[in-house]
Amino acid sequence: QVLSLPIVVIVHGNQDNNAKATVLWDNAFSEIDRVPFVVAERVPWEKMYDTLNLKFMAEVQTSKGLLKEHYFFLAQKIFNDHSASLEDFKSRNVSWAQFNKEILPGRGFTFWQWFDGVLDLTKRCLKSYWSDRLITGFISKQYVCKLLSTEPDGTFLLRFSDSEIGGVTIAYVIRGKDGSSQVEHIQPFSAKDLSIRSLGDRIRDLGQLRNLYPDIPKDQAFGSHYNSGWRELGRA
């Protein structure tokens, strides 16, 4: 006899997300010679991050994985700790409850539900943008404000929404007549929104967006993602 790969039986589509979490955890963290169905309740965060990275690249089908700054943001999110250093997180363990049971503070969903939403959105609508490194993605709203506040008017970047599952939003800086800066956030776009009009075309349409952070003109950064009719018009 041979043990199969983990299988989860569901009776409704709303159980799909939890089933995927169970299979992911079992595949990644079970021991080869374990007692059947016995899996660690807590695992090193570094191992969890490596698993998320591999999952992201496999699902999106991209060679561009998560970066060191993404590691820090995701650690802060899953542990709900914004005071620890990068080194502090390296020695921590993450539990199954933190991964897929506990609701994130101020939200109505778990860490995995949020991350899986990002996976689905990127796979369906943002693969080429991610692979071209045009999406910062995993970054907090607070840190975005810190980055953009000293930048020229119209500088922007793209991040995955914290408040909505499967949303990508655009943050950009505007300056008043007195020179003071303010960072604005556009309502997140969902997969449904981006199936109607692509992210590239939406960025092209927004006149207040000028340079992708730190200083790449938006037409240079996103021009290859504009619809073909616009590109032909630009060459003419």
UniProtKB/TrEMBL annotation:
Organism: Calyptomena viridis
GO MF annotation, one: DNA binding
One GO CC term on file: cytoplasm
SUPFAM superfamilies assigned to the protein according to its UniProt record, in alphabetical order: p53-like transcription factors (SSF49417), SH2 domain (SSF55550)
Keyword annotations from UniProtKB, A to Z: Activator, Cytoplasm, DNA-binding, Nucleus, Phosphoprotein, SH2 domain, Transcription, Transcription regulation
One GO biological process term: cell surface receptor signaling pathway
Protein name: STAT6 protein
Cross-referenced Pfam families: SH2, STAT_linker
InterPro entries: p53-like_TF_DNA-bd_sf, SH2, SH2_dom_sf, STAT, STAT_linker
Gene3D superfamilies xrefs: EF-hand, SH2 domain
Keyword flag DNA repair: no
